[in-house]
Write a structure and sequence with these properties.
Elements: H1 21-30, E1 34-37, H2 39-49, E2 54-57, H3 64-75, E3 82-85, H4 89-101, E4 106-110, H5 112-117, H6 120-127, E5 133-138, H7 152-155, E6 163-167, H8 170-184, E7 193-198, E8 207-210, H9 214-220, H10 247-276, E9 284-287, E10 294-298, H11 303-315, E11 320-325, H12 333-340, E12 345-350, H13 364-373, E13 381-386, H14 396-412, E14 419-421
Parallel strand pairs: 2-3, 2-4, 4-5, 5-7, 6-7, 10-11, 10-12, 12-13, 13-14
Antiparallel strand pairs: 1-8, 9-11
């Protein structure tokens, strides 16, 4: 018997997924309106507009409401998607990985210890260059188990090759979810994305979110086209076991993909502004930094309070500014250097734990210090402030205290130490 191999030809290009009639009617009713919703709802609505194909879920607060909203969309016929309730986070992320590998736009998420439970999958997914999206409403790890917002869960994954950034408001959650898909699915990037919001402070507090027309989203976010989808008509063999000398070139490609994402983020951010009329900074939000002597670097929802504190300190004649990081990976070294050029002292607000690191405090200050070390001209003094841990608020008085420490550093010509635990060091701020 003679076997004949028939070449099926090139893989077909995917057309835009069809929305259900109920979904089209629902989105038409939303178009042009402003809806008051929390960050969890904003994430779910973004996934609805993105017309995701596969959703993999496992409940853990405070992200659970994202999946509750999506389950309701599927049940009501508004969204035609496969909804998989997994038996745990490892299975959940594995299923999303499989769906994305077959050419489906996949959506998943978690919080806190759930993020860490599925840790094995992060390098696998990014190494395979499968651009699924993961929503994280961050939460403190155990111990102490206080369930409050803290950035440690997401930042534990920071070196696994995922695009990562915090949204400070429900509107930003919605916008960043669409933007992250557009960046990650771009063939120049092909990386998964973590769209992170502060648990409870953003995930459960409502704000106004502008709802676009579905046609706007369809213009901005083209169909997902994985260049190498798994297809039974075109069988291929995949295996993780390779010779040692084959590994470094693959790792280099993944490192280059993260670097290559930088110009794509700039491009897609500008395109987003053209389509939706909302212009975001590419990487760093600079606030009152033009003549600042001191500055706070921050990420996430506490930046809202920090802006108010900056305004109050400015009214007292203190030249302070704010640099908010919109993306943590890739880290915006060039943009941060530009934003902080001329500043004399910088304080990094750390809502995370980097136990035993160079600062013996948090994680972000290590990246910030490295970026500023390569600054042309005088480098600012850099310290960090451990604040907002365990889900505590960071009130204006604590930002005032941080500003005082930065002013003292300028006066003495050096920082007191690499990390300050706000509220535990002197009587300037009391719990």
């Amino acid at each position: 018997m003679t076997s004949v191999h028939v070449d099926p030809g090139p893989a077909p290009r995917l057309q835009r997924a069809i929305r259900t009639p109920e979904g089209e009617e629902f989105l038409r009713g939303l178009a042009g309106t402003r809806v008051r919703q929390n960050g969890c709802a904003a994430a779910a609505y973004a996934a609805l507009y993105a017309n995701v194909d596969v959703i993999t879920a496992y409940p853990i607060r405070p992200y659970t409401a994202i999946m509750m909203n999506l389950a309701q969309f599927v049940a009501d016929g508004i969204l035609d998607a496969e909804y998989l309730h997994a038996d745990g986070e490892h299975s959940q992320f594995s299923a999303a990985f499989g769906a994305g590998s077959c050419g489906a736009r996949a959506y998943t998420g978690s919080s806190g210890v759930g993020v860490t439970y599925g840790y094995e999958m992060y390098s696998i997914i990014s190494g395979a260059r499968i651009p699924i999206q993961m929503a994280i409403a961050d939460r403190t790890l155990d111990p102490p188990g206080d369930f409050g917002s803290e950035h440690t869960d997401a930042l534990c994954t920071r070196d696994m090759g995922w695009l990562m950034g915090w949204a400070a408001t429900p509107q930003e959650v919605f916008d960043k979810s669409l933007l992250a898909y557009a960046i990650g699915e771009d063939p120049r990037v092909l990386l998964p994305q973590m769209v992170v919001q502060d648990g409870y402070f953003v995930s459960h507090i409502a704000g106004e979110v502008a709802m676009p027309a579905a046609e706007q989203v369809d213009e901005f976010l083209p169909p997902y086209q994985l260049p190498f989808p798994l297809d039974p008509r075109r069988p291929v063999s995949h295996g993780p076991q390779i010779h040692p000398e084959q590994g470094p070139p693959l790792q280099l490609e993944r490192a280059r993909a993260m670097e290559d994402a930088i110009p794509v983020i700039r491009e897609k951010t500008d395109e987003f502004a053209r389509v939706f009329g909302r212009q975001y900074p590419h990487f760093v939000e600079s606030y009152r930094l033009e003549d600042a002597d001191i500055a706070l670097v921050i990420s996430g929802g506490h930046a809202v309070t920090c802006r108010a504190a900056v305004n109050r300190l400015r009214a007292r004649g203190i030249k302070i500014g704010l640099a908010r990081l919109l993306w943590i990976r890739p880290f915006p070294s060039d943009d941060l250097r530009e934003a902080l050029a001329g500043v004399k002292a910088v304080g990094v607000v750390e809502t995370n734990l980097g136990l035993g690191g160079a600062s013996y405090g948090g994680i972000l200050s290590l990246d910030v210090t490295t970026a500023l070390y390569h600054l042309d001209g005088p480098r600012p003094l850099v310290t960090s402030f451990m604040a907002g841990l365990g889900g505590e608020t960071v009130p204006v008085a604590e930002f005032d205290w941080m500003a005082g420490k930065l002013g003292q550093a300028i006066e003495r010509g050096r920082v007191e130490k690499a990390a300050h635990w706000v509220g535990f060091e002197d009587e300037g701020v009391s719990r």
